[in-house]
Amino acid sequence: MRLNQNILLLGKKVVLVPYTSEHVPRYHEWMKSEELQRLTASEPLTLEQEYAMQHSWREDADKCTFIVLDAEKWQAQTGTTEESCMVGDVNLFLTDPGDPSLGEIEVMIAGVTRLGLTKFEAKIGQGNEPSIRMFQKLHFEQLAVSTVFQEVTFRLVMSEPERQWLLQQTSHVEEKPYRDWWLEPH
């Protein structure tokens, strides 16, 4: 999504940066793991397919992807590469053109202020107990079970008090221009 292509979110423990081609080699290595493939319901891709996927996600108007960096490691030494600090990713998929306030989320971090989302859905493989427990702890409610896709759909509808609480909890997060910040010593 082009909306986040120049946005860096700097938190106390993590930094969120747009998913760029620089991140693909490490991401591709992660996704070779059979366990990660199973937990994320992903198919193995070639490196070329992974580059094409990254490009597609950047261009698609219905996907917003950030790479999660370890903030301490990333800020510790000038010249540290983002790739060496990668610890995960955060994805928002705008799945319902009829409801622009709904986004399918893989990790609940971004989306509340800039995208105007008030509802989040998470689709999780039925056997992925750690993710199911995490989303239940985040107050997501089970919405549906698909035996065909072997996944459970959870939804969180943000009330105004919940939105204010989340904004308060993340008030330390700074939004900065991605490339300008990236060029500065950190």
From TrEMBL:
InterPro entries: Acyl_CoA_acyltransferase, NAT9-like. Gene3D superfamilies: 3.40.630.30. Coiled coil: none annotated. This is N-acetyltransferase 9. Keywords: Acyltransferase, Transferase. PANTHER family: ALPHA_BETA-TUBULIN-N-ACETYLTRANSFERASE 9, N-ACETYLTRANSFERASE 9. It comes from the Eukaryota. The lineage of its organism: Eukaryota, Metazoa, Chordata, Craniata, Vertebrata. One of its GO terms (molecular function) is N-acetyltransferase activity.
